[in-house]
Amino acid sequence: MLKTKFAVFSTMMLSLLLSAGAAAQDAGQFLILSAQYGSERNHVDVTNRLKDLARRDQPFRITFESMAVDPDHGQAKMLRVFARGPNGQERSFDFPDGSPFDGRQFRSWGRGDWGDEHWTGGWQGRSDNDAGQYVILTAQYGNESRHVDVTNRLKELARQDRVFRLNYRTFGVDPAEGRSKALYIFARGSNGQERMFEYPDNSLIDGSVFRSWGSGEWGSGGWSGQWNGGGNARNNGGDRDDQGDSGQFLILSAQYGSRRRHIDVSNRLKELARADRQFRLDFRTFGVDPDEGHAKVLRIYARGPNGRERMFEYRDNSVIDGAQFRGWSGGEWGDANGRWSGRWEGDERDEGDSRRDRQ
What we know:
This protein has 8 helices and 18 strands. By secondary structure, the chain is α+β, with helices and mostly antiparallel strands. It has a 4-stranded antiparallel β-sheet with strand order 2-1-4-5, covered by helices on one side. A 4-stranded antiparallel β-sheet has the order 8-7-10-11. The longest helix is centred in the N-terminal third of the chain and has 24 residues.
C-alpha cells in the first residue's frame, strides 16, 4: 500500500515538474514573427516548418534536412528568426548551418501559436517596426445602427503584438446580437486625410499598416464622429479614401499555383479588385486548380517606387487586401508593357532585392 502511494505521489510530482518546465520553456521574452532559411541571395519562409519542429519539443540542429528545403544549393545558409521583444522592438536571431537551436528564449515556443502571416520584412528585417502610414483615431465595432467604441480594448490587443481573428468575443461585447458586424478603424494618413478601414467578423487583424500599433500610442481623438467617417473617409461603400488607390507598388502580373504548375490570373484579380473588398484565397477564387492536391500560392509581381520588381506571396487561405498596390480598385495595372521578368521567382536572381510578403 505504501509503495502504491509513493508511486502515485512520484507520478504527480513528475507531472508537476514537467508542466512547470513546459511553462518555463514557453515563457521566453521574444515573440517570433517570421523565420527565413537560406542566404541573402536565395531564402525561403520556413515559419510553418519551425512550428512543426517546436511542437515536437526536441532539440535539433540547423541543416537543410531539418528545414526540409535547400534554397541555395552548395552555399552556406542560416536560419534567421525575426521576433519582437517586450519593449516592442523587432530583432533578428541568426543560426548558421550546423548550430543547435534552442527555443527557450521565444514566447509560446512549444505551443507554436506564433508567426505573423502578414509580416512584411525581408532578409534584413524591417527598418522601422511601427512606422505604418496611418495614425488610428478611434475604433468602433458593430453596425451602422448599433456600435460601440472599442479603442481601448484594441490597444490592449495591439500591445500583445499578434495577429488575431475578429468576432464579438474579441471585444467582449455584442452590440447588434444576431446581425452581421464589423470593426471600423478610423485613421489619419500622412497627407492629413481621414480613412476608414473595415474588417468584417472573421477577418484577421494585423496592425502593421498603423503607426505605433504595438506601443498603443494612438486613439487620442480627432475623429469626425460618424460611423461612415468624415467627408473623405469612405467612397461609395468601399474601404478606401479618395487617395486609397495610391499604394506604392504597381502590379505587373499575378500568377497562381506552384513552381511546377502555375497560371496567369491577372485578369481575374482585376475583377476582384474592382469589387474593392478583401477576399480569402483558394483555388475557387480563380475558378481553376493548376496543381491539384498540392499547396499553391498567389504571387503578385509589382514594381516599387525605386523601379525594382518585388514579389508578394499569399498562401491559400490568406486574406487579400490590395491597399498597398497603386490603382488597385481601378484595375489600372497588369499592362503587357509592364515588363514583368516572366519568372516564377521574379527578379531576385538578377537584383537580389525581391521581397516576399507572407500575407
